[in-house]
Amino acid sequence: MNRNTAAWARDLASKHLETPLPRRWAHTQGVARQARTLAPILGDKADLLEAAAWLHDIGYAPDLVHTGFHPLDGARYLRNAHHANEHLCQLVAHHTCALVEARERGLADALCNEFDSEPPILIEFLTYCDMTTSPTGAPISVTDRLSEIIARYGEGHIVSRSISTASDIILNVVHKVESARISLSK
User: What is the pTM of this model?
Assistant: First the structure.
């Protein structure tokens, strides 16, 4: 992965999200900002994380929706249209416990067959960035973010059920990354 991957990812995400989905674009910008703060921990993997942060929600773009499951739609688009790095595609496909929701949607086999069944390296960092960024791009606590998602979609929605199922994993991941940040600053 070259050092320009994050810039390419930013431009691609902007093309698909900025005009049709300005709120999603604001969130994406915040997730990328959060990813840049992890560069001291990640070293040479920082560019890949930032690229994944820019692209994690690209599957929401109206022109890219096929299954209605944004991690799978986004990863397929990156793989098929851009021949993107496999690791980057896997990060987009698996971000924020996507496999939990894929099971709910009957898409777990497709996700695992196309993008591996094991979450890729850096997935915890991407989940941290996503789950500590509000829909408007501002920093938010993970507990407030979990509550916000459930309130936005409503109790019975598939996204709310999935995020509730994955909440313990998400909380543990966020705390783990926060601990790594604290350890590094000492």
Answer: 0.96
